[in-house]
Amino acid sequence: MKEACAEILAKGFRCLYDRSLLGCDGAPVGAYYDDSWGGVASREGYGELGCRNADFGNACYNDHHYHFAYYVVSAAILVKLKPEYATNEPFVSFVETLIRDTANPSRDDTYFPTFRAFDWFDLHSWSRGVVPSADGKDQESTSEELNLLYGIKLWGSVMGKPVLRDLGATMLALCALTVREFFLMKSDNIHHPADFVTNHVTGIFFQNKVDYATWFGWRYEYIHGIQMLPLSPALLLSRTTEFCTQEWNNILSRLALPSTDPWSSILLTGTLALVDPADAYSRLMDIDDAFMDDGLTKVWALYWTATAAAGTPSTDPSIPEVNLALERRTEASSEAPTFTSQWAVDGLFATRWSPAEEDVAPWIAVELDGIYQLSHIVVVWLQFYPASYEIQTKGSGDTWVTLATEVGRAGAVKTDLQGSVNWLRLLCHGGSELRVFEFQVYGTLDTATTTTELVETGTSTTTTTPFDGLNLAQGKPVLASSFRSPTEHAYRAVDGMLETHWASALAPEQWIWVDLLGAYDLTSVLVLWGSDFPGQYSIQTAPNGIDWTTAAVETGMAGAVRTTFPEQVTGQWIRILCHSNTGCGSIDELRIFGADPSFLSTTVTTTQPGASASTTPSTSEGATTITTEGSTTSTSAATTGSRPGAVNLALNKPALASTGLFQTRAVDGSLTTQWSSLPGDQTPWLWVDLRGRHDVSEVVISWASEFPAEFRLEAGYSAAHWTPVITAAGQANSEVRVVFNPVNLQFLRVLCMDLGSSSGCSIRELEVFNSGPPETTSTSSTTQSTSAATTGSSSVTVEATTTGTTTTPNSTDSGSENTSTSTMTVTTTLAPNVAERKPIRASSQRSPTEYAARANDGDESTRWASGGGPTDPRPQPCATGKS
């Protein structure tokens, strides 16, 4: 079936670039290369004024980023299904010409302009082509643009072109962020007027205005549905559950959505399925195939809905449902050649389990990694399914107990279940052939059950697949030193399919690495070598993909070679480095197993009694917060101390913020620049990527005039999951230093939790230290006082050991005296540079890169230099300088 579908798709492409082939009589007229504008344009309508009536104006370059997306995505799927098309020159040339037309990144390409439609300032594309409009260009179907960028990423992946893959991934991520911020409006959207936000989608977004409409009508179904086409995985990057819930409750739920209107199938699948998948599934089942949208099959709509995460789960809605059966241990009554039971729980819909032909009572079972309270299961059968099947769990002894019975049918079949289980089995009845593409189990951990007894399956003959846990490498970014042929690319080693492989060139010191997209405590690495393999290879780890450490050295051999680490090995990048003059040979699969590392939690420290009455208490145990603004107060908890030579890990590292521009100015090492959140952002945040894991114990934030009454520092190994570290208070135009017990992290986020009287947050500099602040000019003194207050007149940190005699209000003896020792930091912040980035002119410049604006751009690595010499007779008062 897969081969038949792939051949139909292949024939469609052949007819596009060669209509003379047999059977291509009904193919479109096609396109041509237009040397006037440098692009691929439709032959339909190119003679019309404005190109308005044919191919949606494609001849005038309108909507190319919509139209060509369907070809690029389909082409990537075809190469995935039929790898030989990766070397089919006419096919590859056709597809990459479409990519060059829409997203050409090269200025050296004389045939196409760079990024025809994509606006790198607005971070999305514009329609309208070369036809002028009084309201400027516009963008209507954001989902179709996401489909193109998704297609470019897929094409780069299947063709083994990492630069193209990364280009598509980058544009996709940026565009999805823009769509969420400006086109799909949640109730708290700050970019549009409040009364317009209630529409939830913008409609036609012009450069000069926004119309809540479409080019083809004013119906709500059109305005909202055009933002959901096509229903590809890329759509989920922009349509969050929170947004869909608001859109459905406030707009779409009030529409009739009859089962005879094709737009109903789109709205149910694109919105309701992400809010209430059970209701959406039921309503989609009531729609006849003839009334589905012509670009949305019923099978795909039902699968999409059956596997969608509900918008109101019983657990934390920020945590998606997890398939408990994914890559768990399986057993089966039998297995057809190459169709093992493990393929039913590998998370891929291109693989399957099938029983042997002679098996009259086939079954497949999966063992979960604990005892779970069931919610539901999903079984994906497609066209080969049993007449009926029982869903069973193990009872006492060796018996199986039936929980439910289902009628077999094509598609993704969801069954709601209750009960506490460790094993689940599908016992099939009837059907000439069975194909289980996915067996998924959902539920929550049964915390009341602490132990589980594993029992055998009696006298049944079973085939058991060894269980290693979740394969962390599958589907992750991968890179290799080389590949032997166009069908043996690096990603083949982590695609979860034993039928494919990566093979290196015949050269010494070849390697392949995989980025796990987060640091893990590794337990083992399994390499499935092909028939050719190296004599010896190293398994290496790195926190950043650059600095490699060898964790083990192994001897290569055909088949599976497992390496188990006796001690904890932590890494994000894992590399196989082959020590052979003939390369690595071939790897069918590279599997990596491990678990999420735990953060080093802050611990409680004993604070010394008797702090000054003017001190500010710490807001987290085991930590110290020090605020400095001319006169400074210290906390009652003793600081951990700062060692000289500590490094500011955040300096010039990548940064991102919730709103506002210039977030990198918060880590540029200059107090004369700053990041500021935008008005309306109620919980602003800023994070910095330290580009590797570090033990962090001290953070310094130089706040500008806008500051939070309360902020929280959060740690993460990725920018997706955050763990609170400490809460503290901000202060206007002041440096706030927070010292805490070491926390291992790669990403650090400042979350402004309570703005107080401020309208936002402004950070002049965020500094993150591994073991303390950098060395500073300091003085030490011992004074007797009732308050720790020091006034500084310059940017000098003064460390003083202060012994004070204070009265402790809360002590039993109100007159008792206590002695405390604390660290006090005093910093005076320089006033902002009022000349920075202001208009500036000079009498001359020495070179094209030393122009006047370099003197006040806030960057000390650039400069202005005047001209000089006999070729320039004008007065030259200066040589070089920065203002």
UniProtKB/TrEMBL annotation:
One of its GO terms (molecular function) is endo-1,3(4)-beta-glucanase activity. The keyword rRNA-binding does not apply. One of its GO terms (biological process) is polysaccharide catabolic process. It is an enzyme of class 3 (hydrolase). It catalyses: Hydrolysis of (1->3)-beta-D-glucosidic linkages in (1->3)-beta-D-glucans. Keywords: Carbohydrate metabolism, Cell wall biogenesis/degradation, Glycosidase, Hydrolase, Polysaccharide degradation. Residues 605-642, 771-829 have a biased composition (Low complexity). The keyword Cell wall biogenesis/degradation applies. Its EC number is 3.2.1.39. InterPro entries: Endo-beta-glucanase (IPR005200), FA58C (IPR000421), Galactose-bd-like_sf (IPR008979), GH81_C (IPR040720). Residues 312-403, 464-595, 635-771 form the F5/8 type C domain. SUPFAM superfamilies: Galactose-binding domain-like (SSF49785). Residues 604-643, 770-883 are annotated as: Disordered. It holds the Pfam family Glyco_hydro81C. Belongs to the glycosyl hydrolase 81 family. This is glucan endo-1,3-beta-D-glucosidase. The lineage of its organism: Eukaryota, Sar, Alveolata, Dinophyceae, Suessiales.
